[in-house]
Amino acid sequence: MILYSVIARAKDGAVLVESAVAGLEGNFPQITIELLRRVVSSSNWESALGTLQSSSQVELLPDGGKRTFVQRHSESSLSGFFSGVATQWSCFGLGNVADEESGDANKGELDYYFHLSRKDNVICLCISDDVDARYHAVNFDFLDDVDAKFAKAYAPYKVTKAKAYEMDKKFKQDLGKLMYFYNENRNKMVRQDKVNNLLGKVDDLKGVLGKNIMVTLEREGKLAGLIEQSDEMLEDTKVFTKRSSRLRTKVKREYYSYYVIAFVFGLLVLYLFLGELCGYTFQKCLANNEEGG
């Protein structure tokens, strides 16, 4: 539940507007001012002279940043709601960076959560007792709405020149209405976040399935292309086989034709040789055979 909220100037931590739930008592404004002082003292600033560096090594709340601080207390040091001075602090989101006075308290001692959001020269802060981190997200949505509504109502130069609590009279009612709205509907918002998360997961699943389907179709297209190429290669193989068979037959014919030509040429040479000896009609040889007989 949001207990207390503040709109402050980021440059010097001056509170411009504050609002609390009905019936809330305690020194929470003083603790808030202390936290704002520590945050502002660690911030860097852009000016006409350039960037004004802070002496702090860690900027607790940079421009555009969001942080959740936790007040730790024990019954021995504090009695009642925010009575005394908050002496034990820790900060979420800064890698366990703590204030110099931070102790080694256990998680069971966490009491109040300080949610801060900074945009330009405005810091929006709210205090809640929500242990569940899901409600922290709702609280930051509240701070975003507060910042947007405040930015519409007041120009940046008015924020720069404003005195402390100058906007409290006019904007306090709007801030209280936003607190009431978020406190009354926080459970619905958490469920809506769950629904949105589920819808987001469904969309992601649809995207993954769509990609898988596209990959499958591409693979099928590639397989069809490979099958078509294999068919073409098979046809080319058949044509090549036929051509190679024809070529082999042609080579064989040429090979045997050379033998036939050589044989005929040999017979012709032999005939001419015998013709020179015996005559082309072999009359001389026949006549010599008859005379010898």
What's the total count of β strands? 8
Helix content: 55-70%
Question: What's the arrangement of strands in the largest beta sheet?
Answer: 2-1-8-7-5-6
Low-confidence parts lasting 5 or more residues at pLDDT below 50? 75-108
Largest sheet, strands/sense/barrel: 6 strands, antiparallel
Structural class: alpha+beta
Rg, Å, rounded: 50 Å
Strand fraction equals 15-25%
How would the global form be characterised? rod-shaped
Oligomer: single chain
Number of helices: 5
Give a verbal description of the structure:
Helix content is 55%, strand content 17%. The chain is an alpha+beta fold. The protein has a six-stranded antiparallel β-sheet with strand order 2-1-8-7-5-6, sandwiched between helices. The longest helix has 111 residues, at 168-278. 22% of the residues are buried.
List descriptors:
6-stranded antiparallel sheet, two-stranded antiparallel ribbon, alpha+beta, 17% strand, 293 residues
Task: Give a quick rundown of the structure.
This protein has 293 residues and is α+β, with helices and mostly antiparallel strands.
